Each structure stands twice: as C-alpha cells, then as structure tokens.
Amino acid sequence: MIAPDDLVCLKAIALLGGLSSAVSVSSQSLAQELSISPQTASRRLISLENTHMISRTMRGDGQYVTVTQTGEENLRVEYAAYRRIFETHDRHYILEGELISGLGEGRYYVSVEGYASQFSDKLGITPYPGTFNVKLSPSAIETRRKLDAMEWIEIEGFTDHDRTFGGARALKCSINGYTCAILIPGRTHYPEDIVELISAEHLRDVLGTEDGSAVIIEVTR
Amino acid sequence: MIAPDDLVCLKAIALLGGLSSAVSVSSQSLAQELSISPQTASRRLISLENTHMISRTMRGDGQYVTVTQTGEENLRVEYAAYRRIFETHDRHYILEGELISGLGEGRYYVSVEGYASQFSDKLGITPYPGTFNVKLSPSAIETRRKLDAMEWIEIEGFTDHDRTFGGARALKCSINGYTCAILIPGRTHYPEDIVELISAEHLRDVLGTEDGSAVIIEVTR
Hints:
By secondary structure, chain A is an alpha+beta fold. Chain A has helices at 4-18, 27-34, 38-50, 69-86, 105-111, 113-123, 138-146, 203-206, and strands at residues 23-24, 54-59, 62-67, 92-100, 132-136, 153-155, 158-160, 163-165, 168-175, 178-185, 194-199, 214-220. In chain A, strand 10 (178-185) and strand 11 form a beta hairpin.
C-alpha cells in the first residue's frame, strides 16, 4: 500500500496531467502546491520514484515527472474506493432509536382532511390516525442531520374554517418493511432527536412495540 | 486540509457505511483494517473527532462512529479530484521526441497493396510512401508505455506472391494537426523509444522538419 503522504503527492502530479504526459514538477512548485517544505517535497518525489510510482527525467528546463503504470494503478484503487463510497445507488440511511409516546395531537392533525388528502396524494399513504414517535439514539442524530439534504416532499399549509394549518415536509421511509413517512412541521424549531412518523398501519400494533422498544428506521435515497 | 493519515482512516469508516449510519468501529478493528497499531488507530479517531470529521458514541456493545457532514465534504473533495484525474473524456497523451531517419524499408512496406488497402480502410489514411520516425525523449517513454492499454487497430498479415507479410497494430494520432498513425510491427521486439508513423502527407515536408527537429505526437483517447 502506498504511504498516505506519498499518495497526496502522486495525486497532485496526476492532477497536473502526469498520467498522460511528462509534466514539469520542481520540489519548489510541489512544496507550494501541497503546503510542505521543499525538502519534504523532494523526499516524497524520491520515495515515489523508489517505489516505481513515477519516473523522473531532467531536461534543459528542469525536472519532468510522469506517473507510471504502477502509480496509475494505485490512484485507480483510491478512485474505486471513493466510487464505492459515493456511488452506491441505493444509499440506505439507518436511524436507530426507541418508541416514545407522542402528545396525542398527532392523532388530531393526521385526521384533518387538508393534511390527510395530501398524505394520500403525495406520499401514497392513507394514514392511520395517530403518529409513531421515535427518540433517536445519540449515534443516529448525525445521520438524521444528513437526511436534510434529501428531497423532502412539501405538505402545504392551508386554512379551514378560519383556522390556519401550517406546512410541513415529509420523507418516505420504512420500519420493518412497513412504509411510513417522517413528518416535520415547518413552523416550530423541532428537537433533532425526535422523529414523528405516519403510516397506513397502526405501527405500534403491527410491530408489537411499546414505549422503550428499539426501532430501526430505514431511509433509501 | 485534512491530514493524509486521518483521511485514510476517515475513508475506511466511510467504506464501512459511516456516511449513512452509525457503524461499529473499535481501535482494534480499525488498526487491523489499516495495518497500524491500535494506539495509532485510537489517536486517529480522536483527531478525526477533534476536527469534527466524525462523531462517536458509546453503546452497550461498543463504540459507534458516524461520518459528519464536514467529514463527508472532505471525502467529496477527494472524490472530485479523482474524477478530474480519471474522467477527462478527451484524454490527451503527449509524446515528445525528435525526428530521425528510418531504414528506408518503411517506404517499401507502406506501398505494398495488402497494407496500403488496410491503412485506407481501417485508418482512413492513404499513406504517403514512407514512414516518419521519431526517437522519443526519455520523459516520453513512460507515456508511450501507457498507449499499449489503448484500443489499437489490427493490421492483418497476408501472403502475396508466396511472400509472407506480418501483421501490425496501428494507433491514430496527430502531429501539428496532421492526422497520422503509429505503426508497430507484430513480428519483432520493437525498441520502446522509437515510434514509426504513417500519414497521408509527406510530414517531413509539410512540417518543415529535418533529422533532429523536435516533434510532438498527440494521441487522444
């Protein structure tokens, strides 16, 4: 395996075009590029040459460096790792937590026609009248934050009999294979360790869970 | 900028799934994965936490680690660099060298109908009767080797009047905008610093070159 410090240097040469031609590289220019000392840059170049990652030649106007086949293979291994990290098409977020009781207002809101029709149209969920509330474990909170970057479905606010109902955003997910959706009201500052879900099922019943039961929420992008 | 050693560690956590959920990571498991000591692994985790690249939590069954948004951004910067390195669609290889005289046999072979018709059909080049020979500069030899991985066009061998003509492979390229092709006979062990080219033009004339003139060959994938 290539040393991490050498890899940074090899990558810099590749970015200069060293994969497809000999590029002019001096210890000074490399040092500046990588914010290291020229001495360190020089050592890195020697190390890369000794491990057959680059070949170096001197011309009248200075040193020229080409990334060798071995060097390119090492860079490709890195590239493949990053592709595995970022190009997993079905990226699966896993949020762990435990079931808690809501305040009971979920039951009311979910039943309001202006919301229910949107849940049905936009999420394909004719919701059970009630919400399923999960307190996330501390290790899941960081993952929960990342969900903000996903495409949430907007549930619009509306007025009914002079009463104003605020908007919300929803994200489909599943618990033990049951389709559900995380619902976040737009109006309030929502606690980041609580997730409120709706589902066509009475999840508490079908999952056989009670307060304190472990729950795993899966979100697939 | 993230320290190279920390990056290796962060990448390993991302490969375990740390981007999308909290993953079980111990100093021991990480040490084994990265072939470093558990003490070093532990230091790396602390460093990554201090720089807000990961968040760590303890559960009953051990330590769980999630890559934070900041950590993910750092990995994305790396990924983007590797994409720039490898996904440049028109990858341009540049080979520098100087014009030399051939042995004169190029003129004969290029004129043989069995070859000439293939150059015309497969390369779109009705060749000037003669080859253009370039001695590569030392810094170009490494680049020349990489061309072997490209898709060469096969020029088939044949028999004419009881004489056997060997096969060859050809790769289209250009010199100063003039289309030409590198030709490598299949039969012999060819010197790696010599490139023999054919072109519809009398390159020596149109380029105004003579023996010793600098020549730049461009190959685009």
